[in-house]
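Much of what follows relies on a compact textual record of a protein's fold. The record below shows the convention in full:
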Amino acid sequence: MPDIGDVRRVYLGTITPAPQQPGTKASSSFTRVLASELSGDSAFDKAVSYVLKNNTRYVPGENPMKFGIMQSTLKDYDPKGTIANDVNELDEAKARQIYRKVWDRAGCDKLSYPLSVIHFDTYVQRPRTGQRALKQANGDPQAYLEVRKSLESNLKGYSANRAYFRSRLDQLAAYVKVSDSSTASAAQAPEKQVAAPRAEAVRPPAKGGDSVFDTAMSFILSQEGSKLVPNDNGRGPSRYGILETTLKDYDPKGKIATKVSELDEAKAKRIYHKIWDRAGCTELPFPLSVIHFDTYLHRPNTAVQALKTADGDPEAYLQARQTSLKNLRSYSKFGVNWENRISKLMQFVVRSLDKPDTRPGGSS
């Protein structure tokens, strides 16, 4: 997954700066290049499409939310209920009407693309952060992302949700990069232009290939260990976290092993790779692939439902997993262990995101 530190290289690799006039800052030249890319309406469509992408579901609670719009926000922007009285009444068209009001209040129509899209996403989540970032960035989209990153890192809930914040910024940076139409103009630019960075610096988030599977396995094995458990919670023998019933399911002919006692680490990984494939982890981006894999190993039904509910959001996925587990009768007995597992999984993902040289898809 691209790190926010790579944002500058992402932009420089795809956008050719306009000829700089004497006394003009590089950031203002950069902004002018992008200013003609999209009209205000087109930029709004791109911005709201990004916000709606992972926020279509209804989230109940004291302040319910739908399409990413909280009930309190709806009342703020539509006090007379002209569009809707309750967020549950919102459809996508009505949500866009509310977001148009947010777009106007945030002043996005006066900003050039992609700064307008970046500011809108920030303002939707935290208006004060958006206002401060806009003031400090001085019109530079790259600087805005860096300021937002710095401001978010000081929030009380940052440590617990660090993976989400980082993922959101990474996705936003990638989104505004691929959404602009500057690639064509760059191809027609003079020979003297900024060279594109190496491919590994700007590649999209890695999906669940073998390197990501190995990363997932390092977590699984650290949690499960290698000891043979004669009777794992009354479900029969297990080793490396693999029940004998699971072994029979994924290796019915005993080509890898006929009993879990015969498993070594290499054989266990072969079984786990079959589970990885069946769970569909190869089609998911990191870190969602790792989170889904660990959930699927515990409770496949929970994993399938969480994946559907989360709509690609790792944080929403973990919340759905927790909610599902809390509804089980056995939560009173095993809840502490389950919550610890989720906490360790989150810490593992955060460490992976923090180390570009070791995370899946990173430079070696």
Summary: Confidence is low (pLDDT under 50) at residues 1-39, 178-208, 356-364. The first strand starts at residue 58 and ends at 59.
